Amino acid sequence: MEALRCEGLTRVFWGKRAVDGVSLALAPGDIYGLVGRNGAGKSTLLKMIAGYLAPTVGTVAVCGEALGPCQTSRRVGCLIERPAINPALTAVQNVTVRAIAQGLPDPKEAAAAAVAAVGLGEAARDRAKGYSLGMKQRLGLALALVGRPDVLLLDEPFNGLDPEGVRLVRSLLVRLAEQRGTAIVVSSHVLDQLERMVTRYGVIRAGRLVAEMTAEEVEEACTDYLCVETADGPRALAVLERAFAEASFTVMPDDAIRVTGPVDGDAVGQALLAAAVPVRGLYTHTRDIEDYFVELMGGTGAVRQAPTPAEAAEGGESRG
Amino acid sequence: MANLFRAQWYRLFCRPSTAILLLVMAALAGLVAVQFTASWTDCRTFRAVLGRASVVEVCGPFLGLFLAAFFADDFQQGTVRGLMAGKGSRRAWGGATLALTMLLAAGALLMEAVVTGAVYGAMGGAPVAFDGGELALWWLMATLIITAFTMLATLAAILVPANPLTAAIIAATLLTSGLGFWFCQAAALSLPSPVGVFVEQEVLPLSLTQIRLNLLNGLPIEPWWLADAALVIVVATVAIMAAMARKELR
User: Fold this and answer.
1) Domain range spanning residue B156?
2) ipTM score assigned to the predicted complex
3) Least CA distance to B1: which residue of chain A?
4) What pLDDT shows up at residue A302?
């Protein structure tokens, strides 16, 4: 059974589509990285899934149970936009309130366990009004985790965390997904953290889910490669294929050859020189996950405008 | 709804401010009785003593403001999200709010009455008659009035998403202090004669503030007072539930 399924989720604010026909399906244990510019609609999408905001159109089902508009579920734990904390209460009390509202049999014990899991330590007995940003974030995560939800919706979970906290939260999420089968949607701009835990990615642009790919596909797309620029592409390709059988080669539209695999740049240069193939350029092309997603998201900076007719026409296209 | 009520109750009594408020209210009731017992020689019933001690006048603003701010804080901090767990929890929030308000109002009034009575007796106040039925009716009426004011102020907090806490405090102040009533009365006077007279003589006497004044002045409690306050509570609770059903939880 799918842990989470959304069909055609759309939210219109004053005629503008903040989220436009997003459909998602997560199996138990999936960690889904939601990537997009500021204002792309990630938080709005998460709020609709959580039941905090009514979708204009679309449906949400959690573990096979269809949720009505604005219907929250005990199976869903959330940390969206900012940790919702009562500053007059301690961390344990904050989480206990949530545990009681969920109807857990032993709310205090469940709260203590959730707070311990996020590493708040001794501070868990202090009032939250004195907490730093990172501590509030940990408390927000504890609120999301209490009650062992089947689906976790996390919006920038690494916000304000120290390196130790980032590692702890990351390993906690991976453990939850692997051992308990919790399906997790993580919206974050911290791509190097996502890269270490996410099993699938979705790119959201101007409210639309424009690309979905697995972690393996992203890894492949971000692999470093050797680029050979030559005036005689076919001959260069023949030489290289003969000399480096273990490598793979792709001829780019500009006749440059992309070489991936265990190949040394010097060896390639020497092989081409020995065969008298003219070489205009030989360099290693590096593309990390950030470059890849910036390209997919369509550049940097915030977007607020409605989609242009051209964009609307290419709806759902993947540039991956 | 029971889970929501328990969660709100736990949250309320974890806050140090709740205990402080109750202590201040008890102290104030005691102080008033200490100060004025000697001058309440014309009181024939204990209800008249409670009227003289202005128990409802003290309890109403304190409790109304405190509870409205308590509920509005849920929206201000976003903690209302944490209370939503499962189908129907948005509507149940309205029911839990009503139950908590009524219980706390009834408890605080009882505490005020007990403190006033104890101090009155200790200070050697003139003997008064205890009419259990009348006192129970007074207690119910005062509870309903405070609950109605609180629910209306909470509704204001839900309807003003920009700053729920401020909205609740302003609404609670206008309602519990009687300022809203005086504003309406002043406005009615400026209306053309037949309309102004109608509002002043036929509409305003039905208001909860007027009923509160009647209660303060020791008038016999009439059934329509109870019905009036109950109607306001029902309307406010239904409006809260309806507003919560589709409200964006920020």
Assistant:
1) 2-246
2) 0.85
3) A101
4) 38
